[in-house]
Design a protein that fits this description.
Blueprint: H1 11-14, E1 34-39, E2 58-60, E3 66-74, E4 80-81, E5 84-87, E6 90-96, E7 99-119, E8 126-136, E9 144-155, E10 161-163, E11 169-174, E12 190-196, E13 199-207, E14 212-215, E15 219-224, E16 230-232
Parallel strand pairs: 1-7
Antiparallel strand pairs: 2-3, 3-4, 3-7, 5-7, 6-7, 7-8, 8-9, 9-10, 9-11, 12-13, 13-14, 14-15, 15-16
């Protein structure tokens, strides 16, 4: 099965929680872009990305039925990468508050790892994308955090995929410059323990509306499919 995946599918999610850049940094509001350059992840953040420990996770329903996933990233050329790692290019244009007709662009390159959990035979009709990325606040290199995001994508009849709403799970693995002022809505609710299909999981981040649950050591530990069946590791 070939699924075409676009690297920047989650660009919109990167902007959630951001503020606006101010022309106080540039009184003349020049139109030349602000280039922030490459922004690396903290060295220890990759320790919380379990793709390396669970290359082919298996899930079971309450009746013992089993489904298997593979971890891989498929790019437009059809080449397989396990997982994708690099510095992606992001940018946004904002009007100057003093002159809305003048726009100033901001460009940055956050380091990120990303992989997809896809079934060999896509009986569920969707797959997961898991991404570890640097996110910045107010377009500043000095206001950043490292975050894992889990998203669902619906597989369409043509073999492509479309996003299934906002991020299902968000976990900040390192608050970095924002440790003195973390913002609660940047992270999914945390549960000391949750029980699904008679099995108890600990230290779980989850979104009860999307019903996807994540653990920093195990990755996606449980999710509910479109028919209402709960699947667990």
């Amino acid at each position: 099965m070939k699924i075409i995946h676009f690297t920047f599918t989650l660009l919109i999610s990167l902007f959630l929680g951001f503020g606006f850049i101010s022309c106080e940094q540039d009184p003349d509001c020049e139109t030349s872009p602000i280039l922030l350059g490459e922004i690396p992840l903290a060295p220890t953040s990759i320790d919380h990305f379990p793709v390396f420990f669970h290359p082919s996770p298996t899930y079971f329903d309450s009746m013992g039925n089993k489904i298997e996933f593979r971890n891989f990233e498929v790019i437009e050329s059809g080449d397989t990468i396990f997982p994708y790692h690099g510095f992606s290019h992001f940018g946004v244009s904002r009007p100057c508050p003093e002159d809305p007709s003048v726009f100033r662009s901001v460009r940055w390159e956050p380091e990120n790892y990303v992989y997809s959990l896809i079934q060999e035979t896509p009986s569920l009709g969707f797959y997961f994308e898991v991404r570890l990325i640097v996110k910045i606040l107010n377009y500043s290199r000095d206001r950043k955090r490292d975050q894992i995001s889990v998203s669902k994508f619906i597989i369409n009849d043509g073999g492509g995929a479309t996003s299934w709403g906002p991020e299902s799970v968000k976990v900040v693995v390192d608050w970095r410059d924002l440790s003195d002022n973390p913002i609660s809505n940047w992270e999914s609710p945390f549960f000391d323990s949750l029980t699904f299909n008679g099995k108890t999981f600990y230290d779980v981040y989850g979104n009860e509306s999307s019903e996807v649950y994540y653990n920093l050591d195990q990755g996606i530990i449980a999710f509910r499919d479109t028919t209402g069946i709960m699947w667990t590791q």
